[in-house]
Amino acid sequence: MKKFILFLLVALPMMLMAQTGKPSAVRSLFDKKSIGEIRLTVPSKNWVDALDSLRLYGSGLMNASITVDGIKYEGAGVRFRGDNSYQKGLRRNPMSVKLNHINSDQNHQGYTHLKLSSALRDPSMVREMLFSEIAGQYIPTPQMSYTKLYINDEYLGIYVNVESIEKPFLESNFGGAKGSFFKAGVDYKPENLPTTCRQGLYGALEYEDNLDCYKGNFEMNSAGGWSDIQELTRILNQEPAKIENVLDVDRTLWMLALNNVMVNLSSYSGNRSVNYYLYKDVNGHFQPILWDLNLAFGSYKNIDSGSDLELKDLVSLDPLLHANNPYKPLISKLLADPFYRKIYLSHVRQINEENFLNGNYSTRATQLQGMIVVPYSEDPNKAYNVSDFQRNLRETVGKKSKIPGITELMGKRSAFLKKHAELTALPSKVSDMKVQSRGKLENKKLNSFKLSAVADRFPKRMLVYYRFDDKNAYSVMNMTEESANNLPSGGKAFTAHIDARSENDILEYYIVVENAGTVGFYPQKYTREALRVKLSDLNK
């Protein structure tokens, strides 16, 4: 009790600042510094039974009006959502709200759908938020925030408001929203699927000859594109050397690394290859998008090798899990390429170093809990008491489900990964990175970008990834090894010439250097902070 009172004393000021600080005119839907409020009004008093029927027997919606952070919309629709997270008869189920159910133009800050997660099997209530914030440093990931949910003025509890994967998300991250678009896993399998379809594939991306078989494993959220996903699986399984023509490989390796480090097994990496989206961007590459993260950090424990894993097994989960599993081609086919394998392991190491070995994740998890401790304690439908909520940051909760404490798991796991034999190779360090400018006495303007850099630890090669428009995919060029003086021990110098298209071109680029054991990146945070240089500035 004393610990809980101390926790409240620390958490209350933070929570009160979030709730009583001077609000802006319109709250951002995914503001992480405040708690939102969503109020639904539905026509049925027995709305739980009605929503159960809709969830179990069809795809319809219950008519509703909704008020989002004080802004009211009529003609919305609501239903229970989720696969493993849905439970019949439960009031506090995950919800999906369609704002444009009746009025096709209706949206809130551009979003036509709201996805509300009940954070099932997460006593801590921080798994989704924490995973999303960490993953968002490396690849496009749905934003999240906390919100209080009311139905017919009844407080239902604190929910995680998860960014819907729709037009605002796709346009801001991929430059468009018109490509083929799929979700791995289906709520309702179509009737009369071909008898030749293989069973139990889910979203594993194994190849099927019959196009209709994909409809039993993926939901299509676009006007068309079944042949696109079939071609992706064909190339992945039969011509993996051509995979970069149809898939953003680097972002896929990031997704797989994030799932592995943070033991997110309700994903492609677990026994069922589910809970991710694939979106074909304007450049013709499928982009992976993480989804349903409430079972991360070991809440779900099955990797399809028998019974659920124990805590010690989660701690020591192999960073190369499924590398030799032919039924997980997104892992096994990619990691069969030595270069992709090095990139993947480098991502694993970077995630661990930047978020877990330094303890940043624990500090952030405590902050998130402090923000919601009061509305959580007032939640009449919470699945866990406040003591379990508080303890699950550091201790296992539940005698049957045994949901690991986040620091209990990740403190040991981060140490395990640091010492793992596949992760101890040191990358070459890039230094003396330069872009040549026009000399003071030169009349002729430069019409190309000349890059030069040095790397230590006996680099095998250095590559530059570059583009002139952030909506385009990166092109790659092998840099040329050059002789140079005063190099560090084991050092080599490299150069590259990239032709400009116009005198106002802006080159965006990053460097990858490979040695015998691993790869390194310059800058290390290239996914968010790639280097940029303008040709006209070089010609001044």
Key words describing this protein structure:
540 residues, alpha+beta, 4 domains, seven-stranded mixed β-barrel, globular, disordered N terminus
Task: Tell me about this structure.
This protein has 540 residues and is α+β, with helices and mostly antiparallel strands. It folds into four domains: 15-167, no CATH class; 169-355, no CATH class; 360-423, no CATH class; 430-538, Carbohydrate binding type-21 domain (Immunoglobulin-like). It has 13 helices and 20 strands. Strands 1-2-3-4-5-7-6 form a seven-stranded mixed barrel. Strands 14, 15, 18, 19 and 20 form a five-stranded antiparallel beta sheet that branches. A four-stranded antiparallel beta sheet has the order 9-8-10-11. α1 (2-20) packs across α10 (360-377), α3 packs antiparallel against α10 (360-377) and α6 crosses α9.
